[in-house]
Design a protein that fits this description.
Layout lengths: L4 H19 L24 E3 L26 E8 L12 E10 L5 E3 L4 E5 L4 E3 L12 E3 L4 E9 L4 E7 L6 E5 L2
Antiparallel strand pairs: 1-10, 2-3, 3-8, 4-7, 5-6, 5-9, 9-10
Length: 182
């Protein structure tokens, strides 16, 4: 009650400086909760890999000297993908499309939201194709997967191309998981 305008400004400055001291100065580039990069021999490939945003030419992270960084298949989200025939819905406009049959499995301890908007398909030529909504009759559903559950459906990209992998971006955390098209 006895705060003046100057007292309030001073209090705000103290909180701002304290917050900057607590939050600033963390020079470790590794995100909190992230595992260290793989060392020694290359990790064993799995059905799902985590996109670390590394060097596309070497398949690894530029900071780890080009070593491939893969997480094991027991990640919270696992992606399995195979090429399938496009089954046009009433909303398909006659354009060429390429479909991939995708199974998303929740191996984690919390629910995982799945939505067709969270997917893209990358071709063998490196072209990225965002999911085209409602053009394939078997489109993957929008669901929340409880731990242990899975869902299967198609992810469809515009054009004719050979799919190499499907990328799923978690709508909450923003982390991405890749599943190579087999």
């Amino acid at each position: 009650m006895g705060f003046s305008c100057l007292g309030i400004v001073g209090l705000v400055l103290v909180f701002a400086i304290g917050s900057a001291a607590l939050l600033g100065g963390d020079e470790d580039p590794t995100p909190r909760g992230a595992e260290p990069a793989a060392t020694g021999s290359a990790a064993t490939p799995s059905a799902a890999t985590v996109d670390t945003g590394g060097d596309a030419e070497t398949g690894g992270d530029a900071e780890t000297g080009g070593q491939e960084t893969r997480k094991p298949a027991d990640e919270p989200v696992e992606i399995a993908a195979t090429r399938t025939d496009f089954q046009g819905s009433a909303l398909a406009d006659g354009t060429d499309y390429t479909s991939v049959r995708v199974t998303v499995t929740n191996n984690g301890r919390t629910d995982v939201g799945v939505n067709p908007l969270y997917f893209s398909v990358t071709g063998t030529d490196g072209s990225k194709h965002p999911a085209e909504l409602a053009v394939d009759e078997n489109q993957i559903a929008t669901v929340d997967l409880a731990p242990g559950e899975n869902v299967t459906g198609t992810v469809t990209g515009k054009g004719t191309f050979t799919p190499a992998y499907v990328t799923f971006v978690d709508g909450i955390t923003g982390g991405s998981v890749r599943g190579e098209v087999g």
